[in-house]
Amino acid sequence: MSASPLALKVADVSARYGRAVSALDRAALEIPEGAVVAVLGNNGAGKTTLLRVMSGTHRLHGGEITGGQVFVGETPIGGLNPRKIVAHGVIQVPEGRRIFSRLTVEENLRVGGIRTRDRRSAAEARARVFDLFPILADRRHQRAGLMSGGEQQMLAIGRALMASPRVLLLDEPSLGLAPLVVEQIAHVITEINRQGTSVLLVEQNAEVALGVATHAYVLELGRVVLSGPASELRNSPAIRQLYLGDGAPLGDEVADGPRPVLAPWDFTAAARTRSRKAS
Ligand SMILES: Nc1ncnc2c1ncn2[C@@H]1O[C@H](COP(=O)(O)OP(=O)(O)O)[C@@H](O)[C@H]1O
Ligand SMILES: [Mg+2]
């Protein structure tokens, strides 16, 4: 019996910046096909680096993979450049949006679809984006830099969708946005996923992430210290501590004591539980 097929897998990846800074320490993570997986963790935990090694952009930031491998489906992509990884359907929405503020909304979207050769799929992708974000259709001729933070985040996600990703990587999309806008973004992520795109959602806002995700991982100092179904993590005392943002970091609790009960998470068992529930 085989586990659910994986859209993306990070197999014990270690990464560093220069000689001194270790950012990932044998990090392991799986994104089942069609899932929304959340990665939680404090500032500096390695969340962004994890996304960079998936999208191949770590080198642009002076990073280096020192061990492990990343797979899209069965294909190893660990050493590939970002363009090749994009061609495999892995698209990252970077931290801080990074839209082209002098270009219009429409021009930003066109940049996102630039590698889509056939015009029909480009048109379809654009229709999907305007359908998800009507505000972008309304504002299509406006300069992106003049839009609100929330609208810019929507544009950044829309631009990524123009490449029709198989896996969408989102780096803290809720950062700095008002609660109502955060809710809209969460809703859109759910909808994007419902339409068939697997999603990896990096968040410091655990409440948002666990509300949207099916499975979640907690990163600390480059290590996965906890993982499991989002519904279970939501009830774990350690996560509640993270919610409140006080108390000792999870690692202190996890490193010396017994391994966390929730990890390693068994996807096969989870799939069995799901099908049992369904029947
Ligand atoms: N471009 C970089 N050069 C050097 N060190 C970096 C760089 N980017 C991140 N780091 C370091 O790597 C570690 C992990 O950072 P990061 O992946 O950005 O964490 P997070 O996204 O969880 O805040 C931190 O110690 C951070 O200071
Ligand atoms: Mg980050």
From TrEMBL:
SUPFAM superfamilies per UniProt: P-loop containing nucleoside triphosphate hydrolases
GO molecular function terms listed in the Swiss-Prot or TrEMBL record: ATP binding
Signal peptide as annotated in the record: none
Keyword Acetylation part of the UniProt annotation: no
Keyword field contains Acetylation: no
CDD domains, A to Z: ABC_TM1139_LivF_branched
UniProt name for this protein: ABC transporter ATP-binding protein
